C-alpha cells in the first residue's frame, strides 16, 4: 500500500512539474540581419594524410580523405539536421562555436514553431520578413498551443514537421492551427514553410476550414466577406456573406463599414 502511495505522489509531482511552462530566450533578433556562420581565425583544412571530418563552419562539414577533401552542406543535404557539430550534421547548433539558428521567411504575423527543431520557435512581425528566433531551456520543447516552452516528458512532446511528397500540405503534429508546405528535390525535402490558419479555422489535412465558435458574424480572409453563424435545428452552421459594394467587414464591430480614407497632407506653398 505504501509503495502505491509513493508511486502516486511521484506521478503527481511529475505532472505538476510538467505543467509549469516558461518563455524561451531570444537568441536572434530579426533586426540582427542575415545569419552569419562562425569564421575561425584560420579556416579548417585537412592534414593531407588522415581520413576524418571536421566543421568548416556552422552548416558545412569538411570531409578529409587523405590527399583529397570535400565539403558537405548539411542544410542542403539533410534539412532535418542543418548544423555541423563535431564534424557531423546535427539537429542542434553549436553555440560554443558562435553559431545561432537562422530566422525563417515569415508567412504571417505572430508565433510559429520551427519545422525541424522542437526547442526553437519564431516570432514574425510581418509577411516575408525574417523572424526573430527563440530557444527553449534544456529539456524543454515548444508548445504551439500556448506559445511557451514545456518540459519534455515523452519523445512525442518534441513535434516537428514530417514531410510527405504525396501531399501538398502536411500537419504539424496534431495541431489544428499550424500546417506546412514542403518542397522536394530528388525526393529530399529542401525547404519547409510553416503556415497558420486564420482565426476560427482548423486545418483538416488539406486546407483551413472555418468552424463557428458561436452564433454571430465572424471575419473572413477576404475583407469584403464575413461568416454568419447560426443554428439550423440543433446544428451550428454558417453562410458566407458579402458586404455591400464599397464596404469592408470590421472584425471588432462585427459589421460592414465604409473603409476610412487617409486625407492627403496639405501642400505648403512658399
TrEMBL record:
Keyword field: Signal
Entry GO terms, CC: extracellular region
Q: Which molecular function terms from Gene Ontology are attached?
A: chitin binding
Q: Which domain of life is it from?
A: Eukaryota
Query: Which residues are the signal sequence here?
Result: 1-18
Q: Which InterPro entries match?
A: Chitin-bd_dom, Chitin-bd_dom_sf
Q: Which PROSITE patterns match?
A: CHIT_BIND_II
Against SMART domains, the record matches this protein to: ChtBD2
Residue span(s) of domain Chitin-binding type-2 = 103-160
Classification via Gene3D superfamilies: Chitin binding domain
Q: Which Pfam families has this protein been placed in?
A: CBM_14
Its name, as the record gives it, is AAEL012645-PA
Query: Origin organism of this chain?
Result: Aedes aegypti
